[in-house]
User: Which sequence fits this backbone?
């Protein structure tokens, strides 16, 4: 699996204009560059997906863009197609895991439970999921 170092990632993501690709202070950027270890389940040019360290369901995967943006709204503004790539990755991982149903969640802001400010889509599945959420 090819590991893209931060200098390479800046070039790699330069098509997104003036946005800096990665933030050296960001936990998920360090997981993207594999400076911090994680169990990566999918990686392509645009997306990295890895198991959540504190899983809330048998499948709990975090799907992140290889571009540092704070939240889902910022990501959608920068690149609708990159936003869609996160959902396509979720569908692919769900199929690989044999999930017949699953939940995808973006938490935005501390009040909603966001604790890492690099946009990430939670993929949850493998058990019955209650609604409304807590
Ligand atoms: P948020 O609360 O921002 O929506 O989601 C952040 C998620 O990142 C949490 O579910 C948390 O368990 C997960 N997380 C925090 N630190 C780490 C880490 O170092 N590695 C991994 N794999 N997940 C992490
Ligand atoms: Zn980041």
Assistant:
């Amino acid at each position: 699996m090819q590991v893209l170092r931060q200098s390479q990632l800046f070039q790699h993501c330069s098509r997104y204009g003036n946005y800096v690709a990665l933030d050296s202070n960001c936990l998920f950027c360090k997981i993207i560059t594999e400076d911090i270890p994680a169990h990566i389940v999918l990686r392509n040019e645009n997306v990295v997906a890895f198991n959540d360290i504190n899983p809330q369901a048998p499948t709990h995967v975090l799907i992140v863009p290889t571009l540092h943006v704070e939240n889902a709204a910022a990501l959608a503004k920068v690149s609708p197609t990159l936003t869609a790539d996160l959902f396509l990755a979720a569908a692919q991982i769900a199929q690989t895991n044999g999930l017949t149903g699953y939940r995808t969640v973006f938490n935005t802001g501390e009040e909603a439970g966001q604790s890492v400010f690099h946009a990430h889509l939670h993929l949850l599945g493998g058990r019955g999921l209650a609604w409304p959420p807590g």
